[in-house]
Write a structure and sequence with these properties.
Layout lengths: L9 H16 L12 E5 L5 H19 L3 E5 L3 H9 L5 E4 L1 H7 L5 E8 L5 E2 L1 E6 L14 E4 L5 H13 L13 E4 L3 H9 L5 E5 L2 H5 L7 E6 L3 E2 L2 E5 L4 H12 L3 H4 L10 E4 L6 H10 L6
Parallel strand pairs: 1-2, 1-3, 7-8, 7-9
Antiparallel strand pairs: 3-12, 4-12, 4-13, 5-11, 6-9, 6-10
Length: 296
């Protein structure tokens, strides 16, 4: 399915960098036999240099804790992690909520850990407008230019679209509501495009402004937020031995906040804590409701 609107050129650069990282770090596909390295899947952040350093740190830390060789598999987005789980290229995945819901279909994996950010294991989706905008509520966005993060985003697509359907602004397609739809995965870039007047509303996680522009919070307003959504987490494939999964969980939970900054510099990660699949039923329900909505 093609995305209508404009995908900014830097997205192509991100995809190429992601591909280079996969090749340079991991020349072959990650095997899943008991005698092979433990294969862990990650989506790289925006800074390739920081990511390479972070991957090396995380690999070394887990190898030390587990006494096993660890291989990091990188993809350019959640869909790549979903496919890696389905094809058994990875046994553990740091994955977003919608990605987990898709990957867990058929019992292929289970969510064992959830990330805690700023003391909370839940977050919300938000709709951002400029401070001087005449848009006051979701009902005011009809006929405007909207920006989402990407179609597999939980707070930047699925929950906002579900709200638009609930408000009867969208029935079959985002074209029902918007004059134009763009996708900008980098949240800081999306907020900047909104501030510069290129778009009218941007959908992302509700703490986006304080994360990327803490000194400019008066430049934007939030006109809508969702109910709480469980954060992204760490999924384990069904064929991973239970004892090993528990050891991995313990090793990940033992990593401190300051140490996570080596892996995800802008992740705002406090720590990881245990969770279970039932926590993600809300995400599963929302994803099912919006999966047939066209965005082209």
């Amino acid at each position: 399915m093609r995305v209508f609107g404009i995908i900014l050129p830097w997205c192509l650069v991100c995809l190429l960098l992601g591909a280079l990282l996969i090749v340079s770090l991991h020349p072959g596909s990650a095997p899943s036999t008991a005698s092979s390295p433990l294969a862990i899947g990650l989506v790289p952040p925006d800074n390739p240099k920081q990511y390479v350093e972070g991957v090396n740190w995380l690999r070394d830390r887990l190898e030390s804790c587990l006494g096993l060789p660890v291989q990091i598999f990188t993809t350019d987005g959640p869909e790549g992690l979903v496919q890696a789980i389905r094809t058994k290229r990875v046994q553990v995945a740091f994955i977003n909520q919608v990605g987990y819901v898709k990957a867990s279909q058929g019992g292929r994996c289970w969510m064992g850990l959830v990330v805690v950010r700023k003391g909370a294991s839940h977050s919300r989706a938000g709709a951002f407008v400029r401070a001087d905008s005449q848009i006051r509520a979701l009902s005011d966005v009809k006929g405007r230019i909207a920006v989402f993060t990407y179609p597999m985003s939980t707070s930047g697509y699925s929950f906002p679209v579900d709200a638009l359907v609930h408000e009867r602004l969208v029935t079959d397609s985002l074209r029902d509501c918007f004059k134009r739809v763009l996708f900008i995965p980098q949240v800081n870039v999306g907020l900047k495009a909104l501030l510069d007047g290129q778009t009218d509303v941007y959908f992302a996680f509700d703490r986006a402004v304080e994360t990327f522009y803490p000194d400019m919070q008066g430049k934007w307003r939030i006109i809508w937020t969702s109910d709480p959504i469980p954060n992204d987490g760490v999924a384990f494939t069904e064929d991973l031995p239970t004892g090993l999964a528990e050891r991995i969980k313990a090793a990940v939970c033992a990593i401190r906040k300051d140490e996570w900054e080596h892996v995800f510099p802008q992740g705002n990660i406090d720590r990881y804590i245990p969770t279970h699949d039932q926590e993600y039923m809300k995400v599963r329900d929302v994803h099912e409701r919006v999966s047939e909505i066209a965005f082209e």
